[in-house]
Specification:
This protein is an alpha/beta fold. The chain has 22 helices and 14 strands. Strand 2 and strand 3 form a beta hairpin.
């Protein structure tokens, strides 16, 4: 609803002006309000000349002189100040049967008057109605602008465009691996022609995966900043609208805008809000999301990479995303941002204290040591909070005690969010992961350990051990599978050795170990007792979401029992081997766990330094290869 020349608003103002003017005009003629008794006295004294009578009032004129004795002296004085020989008066009519006789006796000219009600009527309800209508119209206009009712698709979508993000890689600390992975994207955006000429393949979509506050938005902005290209961002939740079709129109619009500005970056925050797997029915309203998601897929497919537009998206729940989003040509490059380890936290703190006046004795390493579980955003908060505390105390520099106080406050909040492990849990996780790693390093056929971490990742994993395959494998020999079994059991066995007790932390390991052992028996013919018979067909790809029906069993009950026994036997012998390995290398286990507790993540170099090169089985090719394709980590 546009404001037109004759809109309701103007009309209301005009009415009010008329009312006001009339009021002003009427009251400019002085009218004395008299008590009825005063009127009667004046009438009796012959001072009233002419009156008009309505239902409720009597008005008319009275003489201006000779009032002494008729009215009280102060009334006479007041009237005497007015100019003219006559004054207007009005009085409230009372039920007085003698009035007409009195008027006749005084020979006053009188007339009944039909009261003009129009004005009162206008005031009493037309004006309020108009005002009400005006207010309503105003709000409708507002809402109309937001709901897209009138301008569907013409994207007022909150696409935030930044010509220059002003952020670059120097502002992003502690996540060097992620930065390195994105360097290629920066290169491409800087000189798209070069890539075009060479016909090089460049990722279209990059998915940044990480917990809230780990710097996903910051990193995407830094890529735009480094490349000097515009940054178009919006949030997945903003796509999902009330009206079917609006979100899809916004997607189309967004890509059109991006094309006009290429080279540039599109950043979609909270992709999971939009990209939840289709068919995960929510009651009502997922039609719209599905349409929007489909449109996004269509746009991504129709987008030639060489246009110079890179789509980056952030999520902290990659597991719920629609698989279609992750297919080649879409978000096929994943960059994981973990919460920083101790060293990373120190680097992030360094970035954030740059603009803060710190007392000379400050010690970022000590702060980093006290803040396990803090993500980048928490650290940035910490610096701000400490500065505020210092300011409140009237200091002119931030001291360590301010940091201590701020940490205590923030930790309480993070504990509620379950992001801080207690020391015993942490120790358990450290020994568990050290167990996996040490077994892997002790086995001839296991992949070398690239990184161990005790920083919680995702929903379940409290820590992880990442192994680096040295080559792509299509065939695995029995000895290799047995080594894998050992590595999977390494965590649980280490816990038992060190603490004399087990924890729930090995659940996923045991699941995987059991699956592996079962496959060895039922599919790979690797059990001597059961021979070469394949008892289970490999499962085909799952087309339908939801639980698959268990395949009909094609063997006797006795065989089923034998299979179970063989699986248990495989696991038991594996456990015995692992117990032997870990007890034999107990000092190394202790040292590795302690290093983990201190640093939170331990990389290949530190492992080699600790265990001594070749401490493991014969080293194969260098682990750090061109494109890492890490195998799913052992948790
Ligand atoms: P996310 O998008 O992952 O939720 P943000 O990128 O919005 O997190 O991070 C919020 C803020 O936290 C950033 O603006 C920055 O100040 C700080 N921050 C997060 N990670 C880092 C980091 N690696 N280095 C420096 N600052 C960081
Ligand atoms: Zn484990």
């Amino acid at each position: 609803m546009r404001a037109e020349p004759f809109s309701v608003g103007y009309f209301v103002v005009a009415i009010l002006a008329v009312v006001f003017l009339q009021d002003f005009f009427v009251s400019s003629r002085h009218t004395e309000a008299l008590a009825y008794s005063e009127f009667k006295s004046l009438l009796a004294a012959g001072k009233v000349s002419e009156i008009a009578i309505t239902d409720t009032a009597i008005s008319g004129r009275i003489a201006a002189s000779g009032l002494d004795g008729v009215l009280p002296p102060e009334r006479v004085a007041a009237l005497g100040k007015l100019s003219g020989t006559e004054h207007f008066f009005t009085t409230v009519k009372v039920d007085d049967p003698g009035l007409i006789a009195g008027l006749d006796a005084a020979k006053v000219r009188y007339a009944g008057k039909i009261e003009s009600r129009l004005f009162a009527t206008l005031l009493s309800w037309v004006v309020p109605a108009l005002v009400f209508f005006g207010v309503w119209a105003f709000f409708m206009k507002r809402m109309g602008a937001q709901s897209g009712l009138l301008e569907i698709g013409k994207s007022r979508a909150k696409v935030y465009m930044e010509k220059q993000t002003g952020v670059n890689f120097a502002d992003v600390a502690g996540i060097d691996e992620a930065k390195a992975e994105l360097m290629e994207v920066v290169d491409f955006l800087r000189t798209p022609e070069r890539y075009r000429r060479l016909g090089g393949r460049i990722p279209k979509g990059v998915m940044l995966v990480g917990a809230p506050g780990t710097g996903k938005t910051l990193l995407a902005k830094a890529v735009a900043g480094e490349a000097g290209v515009p940054f178009l961002s919006l949030s997945g939740s903003e796509f999902v609208e009330m009206f079917v079709g609006v979100g899809a129109a916004r997607v189309r619009d967004l890509f059109k805008q991006a094309e006009e500005r290429a080279p540039c970056i599109i950043f979609i925050d909270e992709l999971d809000a939009l990209g939840k797997a289709r068919g995960m029915a929510v009651i009502g309203g997922h039609d719209e999301r599905e349409q929007t998601l489909n449109q996004l897929l269509v746009e991504m497919d129709g987008f030639a990479t060489n246009k110079g537009v890179i789509i980056m998206a952030a999520t902290n729940r990659p597991e719920i995303l629609d698989p279609a989003l992750l297919r080649p040509g879409r978000f096929d490059r994943h960059v994981t941002l973990d919460r920083p380890d101790r060293n990373g936290r120190m680097q992030i703190l360094e970035v954030h204290v740059r603009g803060v006046k710190m007392a000379p004795s400050y010690d970022l390493a000590a702060i980093a040591a006290r803040t396990p579980g803090f993500a980048g955003a928490d650290l940035s908060n910490l610096v701000i909070e400490s500065a505020l505390l210092a300011a409140r105390k009237g200091r002119d520099a931030v001291e360590m005690t301010d940091f201590d106080e701020a940490i205590d406050r923030l930790v309480a909040g993070l504990e509620r969010k379950n992001r801080v492990m207690n020391p015993l849990e942490k120790e358990t996780v450290a020994y568990h992961e050290a167990g996996h790693a040490l077994v892997a390093e002790s086995r001839r056929h296991a992949d070398r350990v690239a990184k161990i971490s005790i920083i919680p990742r995702g929903v379940a994993a409290l820590g992880y051990t990442q192994q680096q395959p040295t080559e792509d494998r299509y065939l695995l020999r029995r000895a290799e599978l047995l080594d894998r079994l050992d590595v999977l059991l390494g965590g649980r066995v280490a816990e038992e050795l060190v603490f004399g007790d087990a924890s729930t932390g090995a659940e996923n390991d045991l699941q995987r170990a059991t699956d592996l052992a079962r496959h060895m028996v039922t599919r790979y013919g690797m059990s001597e007792r059961l021979g070469l018979a394949a008892f289970e067909a490999p499962r085909g790809p799952v087309f339908l979401a939801g639980p698959t029906l268990p395949a009909a069993r094609e063997y006797a009950d006795a065989t089923a029992r034998a299979i179970d026994e063989e699986v248990i036997a495989l696991l038991d012998t594996a456990r015995a081997r692992v117990v032997e390995t870990l007890s034999g290398r107990r000092p190394a286990l202790e040292a590795l766990a302690r290093l983990l507790l201190e640093r939170e993540t331990v990389d290949r170099a530190a492992i080699e330094a600790l265990l001594g090169e070749g401490a493991a089985a014969p080293a194969r090719e260098a682990a750090v290869d061109v494109r890492p394709t890490p195998r799913p980590a052992v948790a």
